[in-house]
């Protein structure tokens, strides 16, 4: 494979015809996408909370080979999160109740961002317990030369105050998005909760209040029990279920939201392969985020980006962006 100087045009070797083992062709695929006003070298991001502050994954993955990453959710002050046990394995998934442990916005801006290579697209994630706190966070990171956008974490399923409360109540969500919108002129994303009755309604709220895009879905609220101890496996009792188990739920919600709004969608939930990523784009996502799979394979996001280009070439798409909404339902 070869690429141009910006690393966005990939010459992919792709099968053509029924005899895949002997008949091949090469096609140059434009991997670039634009999501919510943010130019990306490809459609693959990594999800907040699963990729740290980027430097942790640098030994395993060239950060400039993916579109970018959403940093760990930030609070105004450092936060320690829930006591252990706060993570556990479930069938085809992971349950966690970390509760937004992070270094705080000041340390993020002064220590974490400067440690990243130039050219890496970084989207900050903001978390708070009131709209005004989210707005203050947004104002502090807005305009920073290394920050390409802000994702509002309005849907954390394992924090007792804030988070899921905003994601489940359309009036609170509207107030939150409107308040943060006034605090920043940069690209504003909202990460939506799956723990709602009508996801399309929540997407419409974000669009109406000025969000530039939505990320969906966050983890599904869940719990697990250890029958030997007769106790929940998490100290918080409830946690967020992520991984392949939630992918069909996420696909359904991306599809429903894409029918309801015009702002772009970043698909999240159980993506662990290029095939998974393609599914989200076909259902209407303009970009995707890799989450839990990063824990199992820290280099997976780079291979998913390559796989998207290969799929596009194999199916005759000149641009990866043309996959968005290309699902055939008739």
Kindly, what is the distance between the CA atoms of the first and last residues, rounded to a whole number of angstroms? 35 Å
Q: In percent, how helical is the residue content?
A: 25-40%
- The total of beta strands comes to 18
Count of DSSP H/I helices: 9
Shape: globular
Q: Indicate the CATH topology.
A: TIM Barrel
Give the C-alpha Rg.
19 Å
Mean pLDDT: 91
What string, H for helix and E for strand, traces the elements in order?
A: EEEEEEEEHEHEHHEHEEEEEHEHEHH
Strand content: 15-25%
* Total individual domains: 1
Strand order of the largest sheet: 5-6-9-10-11-12-17-18
Task: Give a written overview of the molecule.
The protein has one domain (33-299): TIM Barrel, CATH 3.20.20. Helix content is 27%, strand content 22%. The protein has nine helices and 18 strands.
Based on the model shown, name its key terms.
TIM Barrel, eight-stranded parallel barrel, 9 helices, 330 residues, 18 strands
Brief overview:
By secondary structure, this protein is of the alpha/beta class. The chain contains nine helices and 18 strands. Helix 5 (199-208) links the parallel strand 11 and strand 12.
Set down the secondary structure blueprint.
Layout: E1 9-15, E2 24-30, E3 33-35, E4 38-40, E5 44-46, E6 68-70, E7 87-90, E8 93-96, H1 105-112, E9 122-126, H2 131-141, E10 147-153, H3 164-168, H4 170-183, E11 188-191, H5 199-208, E12 213-216, E13 220-222, E14 225-226, E15 231-232, E16 239-242, H6 247-260, E17 265-268, H7 274-282, E18 287-290, H8 293-296, H9 300-314
Parallel strand pairs: 5-6, 5-18, 6-9, 9-10, 10-11, 11-12, 12-17, 17-18
Antiparallel strand pairs: 1-2, 3-4, 7-8, 8-16, 13-16, 14-15
Helix pairs in contact: 2-4, 4-5, 5-6, 7-9
